[in-house]
Amino acid sequence: xxxxxxxxxxxxxxxxxxxxxxxxxxxxxxxxxxxxxxxxxxxxxxxxxxxxxxxxxxxxxxxxxxxxxxxxxxxxxxxxxxxxxxx
Length: 87
Known about the structure:
- 83% of the residues lie in helices and 0% in strands.
- By secondary structure, it is mostly helical.
- Helix 1 (3-39) crosses helix 3 (68-85) and helix 2 (47-63) runs antiparallel to helix 3 (68-85).
- The longest helix has 37 residues, at 3-39.
- The N and C termini lie far apart (46 Å).
């Protein structure tokens, strides 16, 4: 295989590993957040917060020149993972 391709694929794989580690960390933080909300008898899900989060991530994506709809889809998936903790 072409060494340049192998090197770039390895770089992509390393970035994917970092993304997975960040998703795992995010899930841990959300679990702690839910524990605090439960202790305070607050609802776990906050639709207004989620809407603001998605709007912010769309703005940040646009500023970075990323495809806004696809970035929103990624964060909607992250929110679905959070919601799954609430079940």
